[in-house]
Design a protein that fits this description.
9 strands, Spore Coat Polysaccharide Biosynthesis Protein SpsA, Chain A, alpha/beta
Length: 511
């Protein structure tokens, strides 16, 4: 469906400045989708322009004026495509979305398309997705469609103003964004820059709801939740009904209230949000988290169950990865654990481990629950039956986790079931002895020796500092667990001991 440059279908429009580290990846990702590339350069001093030219881009020199919308519009002024696609240099189009984008471009009955921005923890698309945000990024090339806002610039208002009946569609197109990865925001000092621009815009338009919303976001990033809350509430007072980000205002309002200790206020804000957006799983999940915090376990279970009933967020909402799925299962498991519903808690943690892209912290919870409910002997069979087969290839990691949590017999069972059993046969005996030993008989040195055995210590490459901390602390945790487990069921202290065992620090498999 690629067009000639004389009659381009999709024009990619970007603004850049010193983006040499990431620009090539972005431009490479749109090959086969974009027929024309317009790069507005606001003053690069590195190789950004030459990289852009190597992909056939047209470079527009635009001196920086402190106005992102003006820079964006400079690119739109020269674009020739039927459609405008907007990306930033720290983004890339998902390879599977090229065809989807071309399908969208066939539907001329729409004026614009939203795409799903996946904000990553790291700087590549294999890194965990932290949040998913629907943002309008492809729209018809119309001289009346122009960006507004000197920072966090938007095109939707301009489209609606020019075409009040404009039809906009939520597409399945995915764009990966790495600009919020650890260190990137600090490196570019984005928060300071954004605050300065937003405050300047606030002076011009004090009742601009979107500007108030963006100020709140920046203050939340700074940890100033009181200031953020003021801007959120001003935005709620000014915002036009059905505006796309209203659901986020309620979500951020309740978070600011919760962080500042106002749990009743946070729950009230949550309920107001749910009344307007009953299919938004994030609000139900957060309500469950708040109720768990105040030990309202029955209500927390109901809220989290509702989030799971909805499942992954509908694409119109900003969401965090795992809400409505694995993170909610973990939280529900914690609630069930608190009220003694161990079987249901095990089911929740198991489902979370099945869905989680990084399941080991959840497996640690599962191991702890099996141990504290007296079912350590069932662990090997349960994990083999219910967890992905790929985890079987990480047997040393599982054995290490079991030993670190004092599940010595279970660790021996796992090792005996593996191909390496003969090579570590001598090591299985001390594991069995440690499992049979009483709290008095078990010694710090004995546990340390188990943790330092090559089968365990060599399972993962660990930083020296983390290794030293684990070697010092973990044996004491195991000894405390053994002593607490020794309190018989008839002891008056048994319920408290059981609760403390569950609350002891979980081992981290990476330690």
């Amino acid at each position: 469906m690629t067009q000639t440059h004389n009659n381009p279908l999709i024009t990619l429009c970007m603004i850049v400045r010193n983006e040499a580290e990431t620009l090539a990846r972005c431009l490479r990702s749109v090959q086969g989708a974009a027929d024309e590339i317009i790069v507005v350069d606001t003053g690069s001093t590195d190789s950004t322009p030459s990289i852009a030219r190597s992909f056939g881009a047209r470079i527009i020199r635009f001196p920086w004026t402190g106005d992102f919308a003006a820079a964006r519009n400079a690119g739109l002024d020269v674009a020739r495509g039927t459609w405008i696609l907007v990306l930033d240099a720290d983004e890339e189009l998902d390879p599977e979305s090229i065809k989807e984008l071309l399908v969208c471009a066939k539907h001329l009955e729409y004026e614009a398309f939203f795409v799903r921005i996946h904000n990553h923890q790291g700087t590549d698309r294999d890194s965990p997705t932290l949040t998913v945000n629907p943002i309008l990024r492809m729209f018809k090339n119309n001289k009346d469609y122009r960006f507004n806002g000197i920072v966090h610039e938007q095109i939707a208002a301009g489209i609606v103003q020019a075409t009040p009946a404009a039809a906009m569609h939520m597409s399945p197109v995915i764009v990966h964004h790495y600009g919020y990865a650890e260190g990137v925001v600090q490196k570019k000092d984005k928060i300071t820059r954004n605050l300065e621009l937003l405050k300047a815009q606030l002076e011009r338009s004090p009742e601009d709801a979107f500007n108030q919303f963006n100020l709140a976001v920046e203050y939340m990033r700074l940890g100033d939740y009181g200031q953020a809350l003021e801007h959120i509430r001003t935005s709620l007072d000014c915002v036009v009904p059905n505006t796309s980000y209203i659901h986020l205002l309620y979500k951020y309002e309740l978070r600011c209230l919760a962080v500042t200790g106002n749990i009743p206020g946070a729950l009230e804000a949550c309920d107001r949000g749910i009344s307007l957006f009953p299919d938004y799983p994030d609000l139900h999940h957060l309500k469950g988290a708040l109720l768990l915090q105040v030990s309202a376990f029955t209500e927390a279970k109901a809220a989290l169950s509702q989030a799971l009933a909805i499942g992954a967020s509908p694409p119109v909402y900003h969401t965090e990865a795992g809400i409505g799925t694995y993170h909610t299962h973990v939280l529900l498991g914690q609630v069930c654990q608190q009220i003694g519903q161990e079987t249901e808690a095990i089911a929740c943690f198991t489902r979370a481990a099945q869905l989680h892209p990084e399941p080991w912290p959840v497996i640690a919870r599962l191991v702890r629950l099996f141990k504290c409910s007296g079912r350590s002997h069932d662990l090997r069979g349960w994990l083999a039956e219910h967890l992905p087969a790929s985890l079987a290839e990480q047997r040393p990691k599982l054995v290490r986790l079991l030993v670190m949590d004092g599940c010595y017999a279970a660790a021996a069972d796992v090792m005996e079931g593996g191909a390496e059993a003969l090579s570590v046969a001598a090591w299985l005996k001390p594991l069995r002895r440690a499992d049979a030993a009483s709290a008095v008989e078990l010694e710090f040195s004995g546990i340390s020796a188990l943790l330092e055995h090559p089968v365990i210590a060599g399972a993962d490459a660990r930083p020296a500092a983390a290794e030293a901390v684990a070697a010092t602390v973990q044996p004491w945790i195991c000894l405390a667990d053994k002593a607490l487990a020794a309190l018989g069921a008839s002891s008056v202290f048994s319920p408290a001991a059981a609760a403390i065992r569950l609350a002891l620090p979980l081992p981290r498999p990476a330690d």
